[in-house]
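U., I forgot to send this yesterday:
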Amino acid sequence: MTTQPGVQPDRIDVNDTQSLSQWARKLDVTESQLQEAVAEVGDQAADVEMHLKGSRSSTNSDRMDELGAS
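Result:
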């Protein structure tokens, strides 16, 4: 597999519509969900994937917010 010079395959470029679309399909999320995840945790694909897996169900902090605790 060859990549373009300067392109890091483990990073998600949300400014590249083709890359964004490919990553969204790969991670089974919408492009906007992917953009939000990158904004939260950065463009490292592994970090984004972990963030998305965790955000598909409610988190402890979500549950605490629902209960009125912080």
